[in-house]
Design a protein that fits this description.
The chain is globular. Strand 1, helix 2 and strand 2 (about 65-70) form a beta-alpha-beta unit. It has about 325 residues and is α/β, with parallel strands linked by helices. The longest helix has about 35 residues, at about 255-290. It is about 50% helix and about 20% strand. The chain folds into 2 domains: about 30-150 and about 240-280, D-Maltodextrin-Binding Protein, domain 2 (3-Layer(aba) Sandwich), CATH 3.40.190; about 155-235 and about 290-325, Bacterial extracellular solute-binding protein, family 7 (D-Maltodextrin-Binding Protein, domain 2, 3-Layer(aba) Sandwich). It has helices spanning about 5-30, 45-60, 75-85, 105-110, 115-125, 125-140, 180-185, 200-205, 215-220, 245-250, 255-290, 300-315, 320-325; strands spanning about 30-35, 65-70, 90-95, 140-150, 155, 170-175, 190-195, 210-215, 230-235, 240-245, 290-295. The protein contains 13 helices and 11 strands. Helix 2 runs antiparallel to helix 11 and helix 7 packs antiparallel against helix 12 (about 300-315).
Length: about 325
């Protein structure tokens, strides 16, 4: 090899090393964070999460990136919450399981606590909702960024239900949440806590007769294929929280923290609009599958769960309960 060719190769090699070094430095300047949730990629939670990730990237000029892991890839709700406490998970969407980490959330799961969607929003986006998030941060080390809306929980069943009397002995899957179990017991049903992943096959084989969830949850799990009736009970107007690990949040610069909060707020508006559209689509899916939709008078159901309201309010926070009731 002549000296000229040797110098050319040496120059190209040095240039490649310099470029590689620049790329490495740039990569080190980017903080990559992990966000998990339990829903599939077609669900509004995932769409909202992707929008949140896009906004974080945009608002931090690429210094913070969020990778979204759907379908329980990072674990169950409990796994996600524990992960945020120790810093192995950075963001998550979690709902009722929060009560296992900060007990006052149990009150929010009471059937017929909120009379309609407006009542729920008044609480979540007002002073009381912010106070709950502040208390949660202090008690758990998990920061609440925003509350996202969900469609109301409705009953699906293979038994026709029009009054509380029709619930007598009905085997209904519920989440393993005290308010859900005791609420359905008070209404006359036989509640059975069960992992949601087991619900479809359990309905198909007759292990259970019914389940209750927001419509989009039910259609995403194809529940309308194995149920005869959709009963519009509107028994829980619920939420999901966009949460973050305080361990991680404190490592961000003040500018990045502000960007993350702004992204959370804007993603909330985006996701909440999708929820309204999604419920309309889910209702049509039930109809297309031949499921009969039953409208019920919710007042008799509501009266039966009042003793459970009083019991759990005294147990987990009468002040929080009364503040919600006073917003009606």
């Amino acid at each position: 090899m002549n000296i000229f060719k040797y110098k050319i190769l040496l120059f190209l090699g040095l240039a490649a090393l310099l470029l590689a070094g620049c790329g490495s430095t740039k990569a080190e300047d980017v903080t990559v964070l992990r966000m998990g949730h339990i829903q599939g990629e077609s669900h509004t939670w995932h769409k909202g999460s992707e929008e949140f990730a896009r906004l974080v990237d945009e608002k931090t000029d690429g210094s913070v990136k969020v990778d979204v892991y759907p379908s329980s890839t990072l674990g169950s709700d409990r796994d996600l919450l524990e992960g945020m406490q120790i810093g192995s998970v950075d963001f998550a969407l979690v709902a009722g399981v929060m009560s296992n980490f900060y007990e006052p959330y149990a009150i929010l799961e009471l059937p017929y606590l909120f009379e309609d969607q407006d009542h729920l929003e008044t609480f979540l986006y007002g002073e009381e909702g912010q106070r709950l998030q502040d208390e949660t941060l202090e008690a758990t080390g998990i920061r609440g960024l925003e509350f996202w809306l969900r469609g109301p929980r409705e009953l699906t069943s293979n038994v026709r239900v029009e009054t509380p009397a029709d619930l007598r002995g009905l085997k209904i899957r519920v989440p393993n949440i005290e308010a859900s179990v005791k609420g359905w017991q008070a209404m006359g049903a036989n509640p059975t806590p069960m992992n949601f992943g087991e619900v479809y096959s359990s309905l198909q084989t007759g292990v259970i007769d019914a389940q209750e969830n927001p419509l989009s949850f039910s259609t995403n799990a194809r529940i309308h294929e194995v149920q005869d009736y959709l009963v519009m009970t509107d028994h829980v107007f619920g939420y999901v929280q966009l949460l973050t690990s305080e361990k991680m949040f404190e490592k961000l610069t003040p500018e990045e923290q502000q960007a993350v909060q702004e992204a959370a707020t804007e993603a909330t508006e985006y996701q909440n609009e999708l929820v309204l559209e999604e419920d309309e689509v889910a209702t049509q899916e039930f109809l297309d599958e031949g499921v009969e939709i039953i409208e019920v008078d919710t007042e008799p159901f509501m009266e039966l769960v009042q003793p459970v309201h009083d019991e759990l309010a005294d147990k987990y926070g009468r002040e929080l309960y009364d503040s919600i009731i006073d917003l009606k």
